[in-house]
Design brief:
TIM Barrel; 12 strands; 2 domains; 34% helix; two-stranded antiparallel ribbon; binds S-adenosyl-L-homocysteine; elongated; single chain; 348 residues
């Protein structure tokens, strides 16, 4: 595979352009083209000789959208293809306050969670920062017309969640580089406060992230209230205890002043009767956190069943009565289905 321009910061692009003996302003033109989601060959401001020089070493279009699915509720689902033919999924959710894009950080995943389709075939490879960023640049370009704000502030994609395939903290360096790059004021300029990073709870990396000084929303996939049950659906629970995850969250709060989030997917007969609600309340009450209850997307390769709607609301009510801040995540885009890695699997 050739190199990827989207992996580079503006300063690195500038150094590259100067090393070619080109004028500095070419770096700006190139970087602008990249931010507009363009392939090198499509950046019309650049002279052909420079494009050819770049194409000797760099991918013309390291990420492309292979297919798009449109939901009646406006949600869009994408199948992204990389230069080596690998595929990942992404979703764009349209809310009143802006567009939230769900991006992938790895092709596949090695965490092995029992409810998740992305991990069925294990980890294929890490994505580079530029491959993560490109997912956003492409989708943002598609929706240019709906852009909010003006000039350098103009962005259609206003929020990003790292909740596609992969475990972001298992691909730490690329994910960090991506975060710095998407937040770079000279670049895409997204606010870290509009980014949510979801992790299955890799404790040492959570501490490291807290020390980076990036005020993003940290979200931990909890899905259970004790370590033994958690290990039934999440093998990572054998490596890290809930108690230690909570300490790492507390450290995150101290360092960043940001409250943290927990995802709790409701799996029938597994984690959502009254005793579980009460255990969750005991675990989290008084902590600066919010619980997002998620309906299980049933994966056909797995046996697990989703909890009914009425029961889900009852579980939510019990948490709220117990003093937790919690919401039941609205289900959108169900008609384009195949959440959580199921689309890619159907292609494989
Ligand atoms: N590796 C990260 C991101 C995973 S995807 C993590 O573990 O947090 C984001 C969320 O979707 C996680 O909470 C994950 O546990 C959850 N999830 C995965 N498969 C799901 C499914 N089939 N139904 C509902 N939620 C699922």
């Amino acid at each position: 595979m050739k190199k990827i321009l989207q992996d580079l910061s503006f300063a690195e692009i500038e150094a590259l352009i100067l090393s070619f003996g080109e004028k500095k302003f070419r770096a700006k033109q190139l970087y602008e083209g990249i931010l507009q989601g363009k392939a090198i060959t499509a950046i019309s401001s650049l002279p052909n000789a420079l494009k050819e020089r770049l194409l000797e070493e760099y991918e013309d279009a390291p990420v492309t959208i292979r297919e798009t699915f449109y939901s009646a509720d406006g949600t869009e689902k994408y199948l992204f293809a990389f230069a080596d033919g690998n595929l990942v999924e992404g979703v764009l959710m349209k809310y009143k306050y802006g567009y939230t894009q769900c991006v992938s950080t790895q092709v596949g995943c090695r965490m092995g969670c029992k409810f998740c389709a992305s991990t069925l075939n294990g980890l294929v490879r890490d994505l580079t920062s530029g491959e993560i960023l490109s997912q956003i640049l492409l989708v943002n370009a598609l929706h240019k017309a709906e852009t909010q704000g003006k000039g350098a502030e103009a962005r259609a994609v206003t929020n990003v969640v790292l909740m596609g395939s992969g475990e972001p903290l298992d691909n730490y360096d690329n994910t960090l580089r991506f975060l710095r790059s998407v937040c770079d004021e000279r670049g895409f300029g997204m606010s870290a406060r509009n980014i949510s990073l979801s992790t299955c709870g890799l404790v040492p990396k959570m501490y490291r992230l807290a020390d980076e000084g990036i005020p993003l929303n940290l979200t931990v996939s909890l899905h259970a209230t004790d370590d033994v049950s958690r290990a039934r659906t999440m093998p990572v629970a054998k490596a890290y205890k809930i108690e230690d995850i909570l300490k790492a969250c507390e450290y995150y709060f101290q360092k960043t002043g940001r409250r943290y989030y927990f995802e709790y997917t409701l799996i029938e007969g597994e984690n959502c009767d009254e005793a579980h609600a009460d255990a969750l309340i005991r675990l989290l009450k008084g902590k600066p956190c919010h619980v997002n209850l998620i309906r299980l997307n049933e994966v056909k390769e797995r046996e697990l069943k989703a909890l009914g709607d009425k029961e889900a609301y009852r579980f939510l009510g019990r948490l709220e009565k117990g003093g937790l801040s919690a919401t039941l995540r609205r289900q959108i885009g169900v008609d384009i289905g195949g959440a959580c890695g199921q689309l890619r699997n159907s292609y494989l």
